[in-house]
Amino acid sequence: MKSFLVGYFEQILVLVILAAAILGTFFMKDKTLLLNFYFLPVVFASYYLGKRLGVLSAFFSILAIIICAIIFRDHFFPRDQEFRGIFLLSSWGGFLLLTSYAVGGLYEQKERRMEELQKAYIGILEILSNTSRARTGTRKAIPSAYQSTPRA
User: Fold this and answer.
1) What is the pTM of this model?
2) DSSP code for 72
3) Domain count, the chain
């Protein structure tokens, strides 16, 4: 199940965003609850897929809501509060993009740390293998940075 979710994460994400936009437009009276839902898939996409795909999913979410708002104008913009609705959608979209960018930055930071950790691990393994070779007498050319003084 986990491998299926990981393999088809992007397709599942698109399906969830579209389903939420369409179903939420029909069944929810307060659209601000629907808008807040979009933070979840965008945060997951940003953290697990990176900054580029996170911002792309945020943009796709904003586009889906704008299309639903144009098609179902009465649901999103009551006649006496059109400016308020437009302001609400634009501020929500801006914060959604900022959130995806920030969480995508966390993803990149996590990846850099993981890379550094892997390099340090490989370096430690090289030092340990060179030390064990030195003790058994099968010493190869060891770079001067790794040479240790012989113990008496």
Assistant:
1) 0.68
2) T
3) 1
Instruction: Report the C-alpha gap between 89 and 2 in whole angstroms.
Output: 34
Q: Is the pLDDT score of 152 beyond 50?
A: no
Q: Which residues contact 85 (CB under 8 A, 6 or more apart)?
A: 69, 76, 77, 78
pLDDT value at position 97?
95
Q: Copy the structure tokens of residue 124.
A: 């430690």
Please tell me the distance from the alpha carbon of residue 89 to that of residue 95, in angstroms, as a whole number.
10
Q: Is residue 129 part of a domain?
A: no
Contact 123, 116 (CB under 8 A): no
User: Which tens digit of pLDDT belongs to each residue from 49-97?
Assistant: 889 989 999 999 899 888 888 887 877 777 788 888 888 889 999 999 9
In this predicted structure, the answer to whether residue 1 has a pLDDT above a threshold of 70 is no
In a domain, 148, yes or no: no
Range of the domain at 90: 2-107
**Residue 55, domain member (yes or no):** yes
The answer to whether position 130 is within a domain reads no
Contact (Cβ atoms closer than 8 angstroms) between residue 114 and residue 106: no
Instruction: Output helix, strand, coil percentages for the chain, rounded to the nearest 5.
Output: 85, 0, 15
Phi, psi torsion values for 38, nearest 5 degrees: -65, -15
Average pLDDT over residues 111-121: 91
